[in-house]
Amino acid sequence: MLGIRYPIIQGGMQNVAYPELAAAVSNAGGLGTINTTIYKTSEEFHEAVKKTKALTDKPFCVNMSLLPDVNVGEEIKRYVDICGIEGVAAIETAGVKPAALVSLIHDAGMIHIHKVPATRFGVSAEKCGVDAVTAVGYECGGHPGMDGIGTIVLANEASRTLKIPVIAGGGIVDGRGIASALSLGAEAVIMGTRFMATEEAPISINHKEWIKAATERSTILAQKSIRNMVRVADNGAARKCLKMEAEGATLKELMTVIAGKNGKEAYETGDVDKGLFPLGEGCSLIHQVMPVAELMEELMGEARETTKRLQGMLINE
Predict the structure, then answer these.
(1) Would you say 136 and 113 are in contact if contact means Cβ atoms under 8 Å apart?
(2) 180 and 200 in contact (C-beta within 8 Å)?
(3) DSSP character for 234?
(4) With left for phi above 0 and alpha for psi between -120 and 50, is residue 140 left, alpha or beta?
(5) CB contact at 8 A, 265 and 180
(6) From CA 173, how far away is CA 58, in angstroms rounded?
(7) Helices 175-183 and 292-314 meet at what angle, rounded to 10?
(8) Tens digits of residue pLDDT in 127-171
(9) DSSP assignment of 245-260, as one string?
(10) How far is the C-alpha of 20 from the C-alpha of 165, rounded, in Å?
(11) How far apart are CA 73 and CA 81, in angstroms?
(12) What are phi and psi of 303, to 5 degrees?
């Protein structure tokens, strides 16, 4: 469907999913993604799409996350038009029911993927006419579903229930995770946290070293009080956010800590405690920073070895 070599999609991470990373993933056989929310205007976004095309001749995706109360207005239509004009392979939407966007994306000649945290939302998206869904479990970095459904259950249920392809995400950072997701019925995986620990990821070496040192207890859930729960690294900013929430802080007060500009500045300066640092639970399995191309081959190699091991265990001669 996507014209990619490997069933691996790079997540559209805020302040991370820039053209350089997306192009590296696409060039290595996966589907790279750039994020619309990184750019202040449609003109800036258009330049980013052109830059991605200059860095790769392979398919790539655009992530378009919209707040639940956002209407599909002229600005959003402009973003879709840009993608269609420039030959973007797919758009991944999230945050709103995709009904109003399906025809726009299809009319522009692109594949429509919609991100969901539970199977029931996947069913709704399928009825709207999307081409595939990204089913992301509770282990994911960024915004997990409020129901707390883990990836192993979600991927299994969604792939059994839906007729359209399911892309599994949440806690998948290695070849074993890829093989597991595919064995549960997914057609591909989406990975965010693992691509943050690559040479091409536009974050500081301090953040990458933080990931390498992480354990299974290195992430926490914040922003529950404002009903915008997010899984992030257990750093200074996250702990301050939790303390403020416990003390009844308002959204305006919390924004002094959780604003996206703080996270962007942290990535640029190397101050890992400056802003929230979205990170999935799979961070505990990451122990090396490497080029994307090398990582992709390692991931697929381990996935193949895992499959061979399972075949040896399950085949009864």
Answers:
(1) no
(2) no
(3) S
(4) beta
(5) no
(6) 23
(7) 50
(8) 999 999 999 999 999 999 989 999 999 999 999 999 999 999 999
(9) HHTT--HHHHHHHH-H
(10) 27
(11) 12
(12) -60, -40
Token pair recorded at residue 198: 């690559």
pLDDT digits (tens, 9 = 90+) for 37-84: 999 999 999 999 999 999 999 999 999 987 655 556 778 899 999 999
CA 149 to chain centre: 17
What is the spatial distance between Cα 292 and Cα 31, in angstroms, rounded to a whole number?
A: 12
Burial of 194 (0-12, 13-18, 19+ CB in 10 A): buried
Own/partner long-range contacts of 209-216 (Cβ < 8 Å, ≥24 apart)? 210/235, 210/272, 210/277, 211/279, 211/283, 211/286, 212/286, 212/287, 212/288, 212/289, 214/279, 214/283, 214/284, 214/286, 215/284, 216/281, 216/284
At residue 38, what are phi and psi to the nearest 5 degrees? Answer: -70, -25
34 vs 44: CA distance, rounded Å: 12
Which helix or strand (DSSP H or E) is residue 283 part of? none
- The rounded distance, in Å, linking the Cα atoms of 70 and 84 is 21
| pLDDT of 191 strictly over 60 | yes
237 by DSSP, 3-state: which?
Answer: helix
> Measuring CA to CA, how many Å separate 216 from each of 69, 220, 272?
35, 10, 18
Enter the tokens of residue 151. 């990836």
The one-letter code for the residue type at 127 is K
Alpha-carbon Rg of the chain, whole angstroms? 19
132 forms beta bridges with 113
Tokens matching residue 107: 């009319």
Contact indicator for 115, 125 with CB cutoff of 8 Å: no
- 211 phi, psi to nearest 5 deg: -60, -45
34 SS3 class: strand
pLDDT per residue over 69-124, tens digit each? Answer: 555 677 889 999 999 999 999 999 998 889 989 999 999 999 999 999 999 999 99
Pairing between β-strand 8-10 and β-strand 32-35 as defined by DSSP bridges: unpaired
Tokens of 51: 């830059």
